[in-house]
UniProtKB/TrEMBL annotation:
The chain crosses the membrane at residues 12-30, 42-64, 92-115, 149-167, 179-207, 219-243, 255-281, 301-334, 346-367, 387-408, 429-447, 453-470. It is a multi-pass membrane protein. It is found in: Membrane. SUPFAM superfamilies: SNF-like. This is Transporter. CDD domains: SLC6sbd_Tyt1-Like. The lineage of its organism: Bacteria, Pseudomonadati, Pseudomonadota, Gammaproteobacteria, Oceanospirillales. It comes from Vreelandella venusta.
């Protein structure tokens, strides 16, 4: 086995996992998807999947990483050998690598927008601006592929530098300050929203559950978002789990991550929608939501340029600690499998994701309509990539749950979980049946409506395949 190092401090994994979980998913994606999907119903499905499916699968994913102590692909290869199961389970690692690459490609472009706003804030360009000016400024950013590519390049290069130099394990001390600071500043924005916006309307929008409001694709987006926000189902948590100290509690860690992550998303959502309702903006304006509403608050609040500048710097920090967890699993694989140096491995991963990211860049301007993606899938390339990741992450999570639930032995799991038999049995019930059933349910319900006939056929085949594999597993176990 390669010389994998272990984070010696018990709390390091927790910090790294929170760093990975908290990011653009909480601040940018959660509010905008909630807005597009009518609010409460979306949040209900999102929260249910986080707690009933996400936490057990989070435990399963860290467990697979910690028992194998290798990168996801090599780790799964190792586990399929030691547990005499089909090699097909290695696809957990491959699917995860594909998802990491797709997510990083658009994640970096959106983080680039935060870079733009950091600049605008610190130079005081938006002080006193009104809603019309701010939206026009955002539209101008979207209209410029050159500027977006520049920011995208800067962000991805900086993330690559951190992982390439191997110093990401050292950014814990930074995270220890940044995460609470981010939370504090969100509270400041929320207070501003309570005073100057309409927090009642926001709470009403977010917490009135009317399940009939949710479109079928909304179900898929809600489930996808719950995996996305926890960094789940694609190997990032497995890769970090491989470095996790054997003493740390899997269950407590998973609950803590889910709790912090959800709290940040909720505060961000409340703050943003208070401003949206207060200023009479559209809830369903899409990916620009955070970038149009928050600057509006900073434009008007005392010391807004400074507060806004610090806020966007913290957003960038949160995005970087997430993007390095997207690079790490693939880079670790390339290092282990092909004996590359770290910088080489990171360069390959990042250059490919950078090139793919150009598709997201042009999705907001020159390729905003009339492309092959619109003809085939009725959406832009960016939206198509998001759809793919919404499928890949839960699918990966489903396979992780099945493997951890059926292939690992009771004594292995007991050793990893380190708890009593009751929680072991509950957890195993959750990963054997509840998680897989919930994910399959959402897939079966939504995918046929989303993409005509191609995707349901593929989806059914995949589910049957996974089921067949789990049967084989049982025989050989
Ligand atoms: N969870 C991060 C966010 O909310 C995004 C992210 C980082 C991610 N690593 C991941 C998503 C791995 C899926 C898988 O911003």
């Amino acid at each position: 086995m390669s010389g994998h190092n272990v984070w010696t401090h018990k709390g390091t994994f927790l910090l790294a996992a929170v760093g990975s979980a908290v990011g653009l998913g909480n601040l940018w994606r959660f509010p905008y998807l909630t807005g597009e999907n009518g609010g409460g119903a979306f949040i209900l499905i999102y929260a249910l999947t986080i707690f009933a499916v996400g936490i057990p699968i989070f435990i399963a994913e860290t467990m697979l990483g910690r028992t194998s102590r290798q990168s996801p692909i090599m780790g799964m290869r190792h586990l399929t050998k030691t547990h005499k199961t089909s090699r097909a389970w290695e696809s957990i690692g491959w699917l995860g690598a594909a998802a990491a690459f797709l997510i990083l490609s658009f994640y970096s472009v959106i983080a680039g927008w935060a870079l733009h706003y950091t600049w605008l804030m610190l130079t005081g360009s938006l002080v006193g601006a009104d809603a019309t000016t701010i939206s026009a400024g955002f539209d101008a950013l979207l209209a410029s592929p050159g500027l977006m590519t520049l920011y995208h390049t800067l962000f991805i290069a900086f993330s690559a530098l951190i992982v390439g130099l191997g110093i990401h394990k050292g950014i814990e001390s930074g995270l220890r300050i940044m995460m609470p600071a981010l939370f504090a500043i969100l509270i400041v924005v929320l207070i501003y929203g309570v005073i100057n916006g309409d927090v009642g309307a926001a709470a009403n929008f977010l917490f009135t559950f009317n399940i009939a409001d949710l479109s079928l694709e909304g179900w898929l987006q809600a489930m996808g978002q719950s995996f996305f926000t926890l960094s789940l189902g694609m190997g990032a948590i497995m890769a970090y789990g491989a470095y996790m100290s054997s003493e740390a509690s899997l269950t407590r860690t998973a609950i803590a991550v889910a709790f912090v992550d959800t709290a940040i998303a909720m505060v961000a959502g409340l703050a943003i929608f208070s401003l949206v309702f207060g200023a009479g903006l559209e809830t369903d304006q899409g990916p620009g939501l955070m970038f149009v509403t928050l600057p509006l608050a900073f434009a008007d609040m005392p010391f807004g340029a400074l507060v806004g500048g610090v806020f966007f710097i913290l957003v960038l920090g949160a995005a970087i600690s997430s993007s390095i967890s997207l690079i790490e699993p693939v880079a670790a694989f390339l290092v282990e499998r092909f004996d590359m140096t770290r910088p080489q491995a990171v360069t390959i991963m990042v250059v490919a994701a950078w090139a793919m990211g150009l598709l997201t860049v042009v999705s907001f301007n020159v390729w905003a309509e009339g492309t092959i993606f619109h003809a085939l899938f009725e959406r832009s390339a960016f939206e198509f990539i998001e759809l793919l990741t919404n499928i890949f992450m839960p699918l990966g999570g489903l396979m992780i749950a099945l493997f951890a639930g059926w292939a690992l032995t009771q004594s292995e799991v007991m050793k990893e979980l380190g708890t009593n038999i009751t929680w072991f049995k509950t957890w195993r019930l959750l990963v054997r049946f509840v998680g897989p059933a919930a994910v399959s349910f959402v897939f079966l319900r939504t995918i046929p409506q989303v993409e005509g006939y191609v995707v349901p056929t593929l989806g059914a085949l995949l589910i049957v395949g996974v089921f067949a594999l789990s049967q084989r597993l049982r025989k050989s176990a």
